[in-house]
Structures are given as C-alpha cells and as structure tokens.
Amino acid sequence: MTATDATPTLPGRLGDPSLDLRTDPRAKPGLVAALAPFGLDGPAAEPPLTREAGRDAVAEAVGGLHDAFSALYANIPLDLPGDAPDDAVEVTETSVPSPDGHLIPVVLYRPAGVAGPLPCVVYIHGGGMVILDAETRVHDRWCRELALTGVVAARVGFRNAWTELGPHPFPAGLDDCATAVRWLDDQRGELGLTRIVLQGESGGANLVLATTLRAKRSGDLDAIDGVYASVPYVSGGYAWDRARKLRELPSMVENDGYFINCALMDLLVAQYDPHARHTEDPLAWPYFATADDLAGLPPHVITVNELDPLRDEGLAYYRKLLAAGVPVEGRVNLGIVHGAEMIFRQALPAEHRAAIADIRAFVDRLTVDHI
C-alpha cells in the first residue's frame, strides 16, 4: 500500500466535487429512490439569480421557491401501514392577538378522548422563516403524529418573510412565535397544558432557538421547559467564501447541492434580512449566540443529518450550548438529507417514527414545574 492509497478520502463533495446523491455511497438508497420522481436525486437546481439582482427580483425568485416547495409538499406520498384515522386526533383552530393588531393562527392537536392535563409541543415549521405555510399536509401529519404520542401539539402560523401580500422581514416571524408561546404559557390551566416544549425543523428550528434566546432577554424564560431543534438553519452564512465555509462549517461544501444548496439558502437570507443589518444578531442567526446569551437556558436537543449542508452549524450550536453549561443532547441521522426524516415519511419510516418517539421521550425527561 502506498502513502497515497492510505490517505483517507474526504467525505462527499469535499473529496469529489462531482458527487451527488446518486453517487455518494453514504446516501440511503430508499431515500434517493423517493427523491428521483421529483428530480431531486441529482444536484439541487441553482436559483435563477443572486441577491445582487435587487430586492424585487429576489422576492419574485423566492415566491417561485415557495411555489415549488409547496408543490413538493402537496405531492409527497405520506401514507404508511397502520396509520391512525383522522378522528384519532381532535383539532381546534384558534388565534392569538399580536401587539401590533394582527391575529396569529394557532392550531391545537389533542389525542381524542384523552382527559386530563397533557404536555404541549409547540411546533414551528421549516422553510427558512421565509417560505412554506403552516397548514401543509406534511406539517399537519407531523402534528397529528406528535399528538398521538399523548401530547397537545400547537402549530404556530407565524408570518413568513415572503408572502403574496408583501414582505414581513425579521423580526416579524420571531415576534409571532414569542407572542404565541407567551399566550400558551398564560393559558396552561385553561388548555390543560403541563410542560411546554418548543420544536421545529430547519427555519423552524431557528425560530425555536431564537424564541428561547429572546425569552431569556425579556424575562419570559419560565414559559419554556425544553427545546428540540431539528436540522437547525442558524448561521445565515451561505454566501461566505469557500475558505470561511471550510474553516467554520465545511458541510456547506461537503453536502452543497444535496436536496438543497447554499445559493438557494442565501436568497432566503436576503428576503429575511433584506438590508443585511442582522448578519450576526443571534435573534436572527442563533449561530452567533455568546456563552452569556446561552447560560441558564432550559434543556435542549439538537439533531442533524449527515448529508445536509446545514449539519455543521447544528453541531456548532450544540457545542456552544454544552460549553455554556446548558443540558443538551445531540443526534446525528446517518445517510439522509436535510429534514428528510420529517418530509419523506414514506421513504424513511424508521427514521420518521424514531424522531417522533424521541421528541416524546425528551418531553418525558423534563422536570415538571408547572403542574
């Protein structure tokens, strides 16, 4: 064996820039097959422009991304053998008044026929804080499954930074999430809620982390008993140069183009913070939270996926929490792309069910202070 033969090959596109999900040996074959009908098994399509095209052009391109991902969510096969009937979960729609006068939709999912107080999982959906709607069938299914574990799932319809009626940039969505969490805390007795755990994926994970950081600043931290952040989108650094990506978050290079890519994510960043005034504000991008920001936060779980460009920013946040003395657990899901355990339920039933069960197990491990 030569010295060259003994040199380990770097993973993913770090070692071979021509790799995609069809040729990366780490990718789960069943997931790749599920992506193929949507044309997502190869390199993720580059967006038609960059942020330099200007705010109006970026907004138009982001609207196209919203339509494309909404169509994907509308057409992904979700059914699995043994699924519970719809009436196994009681669904109640309500709304929470915000300080600026608009109503924040909150949908409560409760296991049918279950009496007595239950823990609450506040679900905040993904989409980079910019695209996708709270009421997609993927998000609805996720909340139903959470409820079937014996919790109340509360789905928050926060304002996206892009809507057909105009933009709502940072901090509009965060404001809505903070308001909804305060309301749920105030209504614990009336709604029959014990622990309150925030849970979200991708941009929703950003918002659950930022909502917790904000609650500490505003003195509302006792409203939150735990935080479960899946595949968090927290750096905003998707337009960093290659050298900085390799130095800080190499998964942005290693897995770029696997289901999502950095160019697409930077358009979402440009819509979320159009004047680039919050690039290192931890309430916009929790990656930049300091040890003082994190000290004293409630228990967290951070999960990441091996083939995700965002993997390393989730790991970095986990390590920051650990260094700050926050009780934190970490998970790495091997062989799958960003958010796949939630989005591609039928293709990844074991990973999907494990994610749901792990959220419930985390809720059960928390100390009950509000019963």
TrEMBL record:
Keyword Hydrolase set for record: yes
Keyword Cell membrane among record annotations: no
Stretches assigned to the Alpha/beta hydrolase fold-3 domain: 121-340
Superkingdom of the source species: Bacteria
Renumbered residue ranges of the record's region Disordered: 1-25
InterPro entries associated with the record: AB_hydrolase_3 (IPR013094), AB_hydrolase_fold (IPR029058), GDXG_lipolytic_enzyme (IPR050300)
Alphabetical keyword list: Hydrolase
Pfam families per UniProt: Abhydrolase_3
GO terms assigned for molecular function: hydrolase activity
Name of the protein in question: Acetyl esterase/lipase
Species of the source: Actinomycetospora succinea
